[in-house]
């Protein structure tokens, strides 16, 4: 084999500088200096000679190895917290006399929502009145039995019968009062129509009654009140990422309505059952919503930082494309470099995470590496 084939390949000065020298634009010494090779290729290695101008343009630094969380993003939906949502059901059937709220109104606990004229409620009031009258009669009978017994003219069994009648009348009166109170009536008297009041603070999110309408089904909700001061953002987490999610983990969320705003929350619960179709698990994230910016039904993106072991990071400026692979130039000896293919997982804010190809202590070209492309 001839010496020509075994000689290393060299990179010489640019064409522009050569022309400048031919036209007398540089001295003999300058021409000799610039005519020196920028780098010399020895097989798989690239050497930058001592007098190469590349030494002024290449920047070399050791790779950084540290711990950085893995940012995971999942599609999500904004939902009302079931623990702060109440369906308002009618205690009895009847006709809606008046409606005091509209859809979207904010109500406080105990606030009057609607008035319903109900025959069943009138019956409950009547039961209280009858029980109260029976109790008064039983009390009078007991008092008479005591008086007669003290005068020596009553048998013991008559007194016992009067005492039993009074106890039963008192129990029936308490039962009638309790039922009336449970139906929304006033056991101490007052208005006879049924008053429907708000069970919690919140916003009226659904409304299905109107004045004059008949409420025929006591199991059908008349309206729904949701307190959206605190909400859930339910994220759909793939099965293979569930091991990175835990209760109490901090989460950030964003919604299309406020693209520049970041909402802070924590993982409230991880679903116990996966969706068999999507192979995803609902992860519920508790979010404070004091200004009511988040609305139930909104689409959202939930992001959480999953802890990762210490890994190698390099600046993105060190990465070079070589055909279909990503490479970096590694210094294997002083000013001698070798192209090495690396495998990346994803980009981070502080650089690129390297899964394969580099190890702690490696020195790489972090700036000017494109000048070494042969």
Description:
Helix content is 21%, strand content 39%. The chain is of the alpha+beta class and 374 residues long. Among the domains are: 38-67 and 310-372, conserved putative lor/sdh protein from methanococcus maripaludis s2 fold; 73-83 and 226-306, Efflux pump adaptor protein, beta barrel domain (Elongation Factor Tu (Ef-tu), domain 3); 119-192, Helix hairpin bin (Helix Hairpins), CATH 1.10.287.470. The strands form five sheets. Strands 1, 2, 3, 5, 20, 21, 22, 23 and 24 form a nine-stranded antiparallel sheet that branches. The chain has a six-stranded antiparallel beta barrel with strand order 6-15-18-17-16-19. Strands 7-14-12-9 form a four-stranded antiparallel sheet, with no helix packed on it. Helix 4 packs antiparallel against helix 5 (156-182). The two termini are 24 Å apart.
Summarize the structure.
With 374 residues, the chain is an alpha+beta fold. The protein has helices spanning 3-6, 15-22, 28-34, 119-151, 156-182, and strands spanning 9-11, 39-42, 45-47, 59-62, 64-66, 70-80, 85-88, 94-99, 106-107, 112-117, 194-197, 202-207, 214-215, 223-226, 230-238, 250-255, 258-270, 280-288, 299-306, 311-314, 320-322, 325-333, 336-348, 351-356, 363-367. The two termini are 24 Å apart.
